[in-house]
TrEMBL record:
PANTHER family: ACYLPYRUVASE, FLUTATHIONE S-TRANSFERASE. Keywords: Hydrolase, Metal-binding. It comes from the Bacteria. This is Fumarylacetoacetate hydrolase family protein.
């Protein structure tokens, strides 16, 4: 088969303790999966069915890189997240079997153009311009399940310039990781290389050029991102 254009490179993220890389196929994100964050966004935290948005695979950025302050926003936010890396695909996955489909876990930061997201939300339009922009998915090294097990509790914390802004526990997830995988797989067939960002705790807020943003999750280490000037 010939291609009329060169095929794009496969986006990848680091693997903890290895020179190998994890190939990224798609990035799914769970919205408002911590009750306190739902409240701060002006929404009811009742346990309604989860909803999802997505980011392009090539939005991934490794820890330690500088991310330029993005265009068309004056309200650029951080969001600490637990990231699930899918290693075995499937559809209509039973909740009891969901953990068997996970290759590993990582620390993530769902960067958001909040003003664009809220403007779209308020008129019932998609969130893409607020969420799915270039270099908007900071993903730390993926830790294999064989090394870490399946984290169900433990600190998830974000700091800006050393000042803690988000401080919660993974046990506070409204929808657990197995529930999220099962629910999503009943609508979309999951595949190896898919990443799921599982939602952010309360305390989201702005970043400005010069800020250093760190996110840590117990057992998964810490990631760091410096915010650069606008391109």
């Amino acid at each position: 088969m010939s291609l009329v254009l060169p095929a794009p490179a496969t986006p990848t993220v680091a693997v903890a303790g290895s020179d190998a890389r994890f190939p990224v196929r798609r990035i799914f994100c769970v919205g408002r999966n911590y009750a306190a964050h739902a409240r701060e966004m002006g929404k009811d935290p009742d346990r309604e069915p989860p909803f999802f948005f997505s980011k392009p695979a090539d939005a991934v950025v490794d820890s330690g890189e500088t991310v330029a302050y993005p265009p068309q926003t004056e309200n650029f936010h951080y969001e600490a997240e637990l990231v699930v890396a899918i290693g075995k695909g499937g559809c209509t996955i039973a909740e009891a079997d969901a953990l068997d489909h996970i290759w590993g876990y990582a620390v993530g930061n769902d960067l958001t153009r909040r003003d664009l997201q809220l403007a779209a939300r308020d008129v019932g339009r998609p969130w893409d311009f607020g969420k799915a922009f270039d270099r908007s998915a900071i993903i730390g090294p993926v830790h294999a399940v064989s090394e870490t097990g399946h984290p169900t509790k433990g600190s998830i914390r974000l700091a800006v310039n050393g000042v803690v802004k988000q401080d919660a526990d993974l046990a506070e997830l409204i929808w657990s990781v197995p529930e999220v995988i099962s629910y999503l797989s009943h609508s979309i067939a999951l595949a190896p290389g898919d990443l799921i960002m599982t939602g952010t705790p309360a305390g989201v807020g702005p970043l400005v050029p010069g800020d250093v943003c760190t996110v840590s999750i117990k057992g998964l280490g810490e990631i760091s991102t410096t915010i650069g000037p606008r391109d």
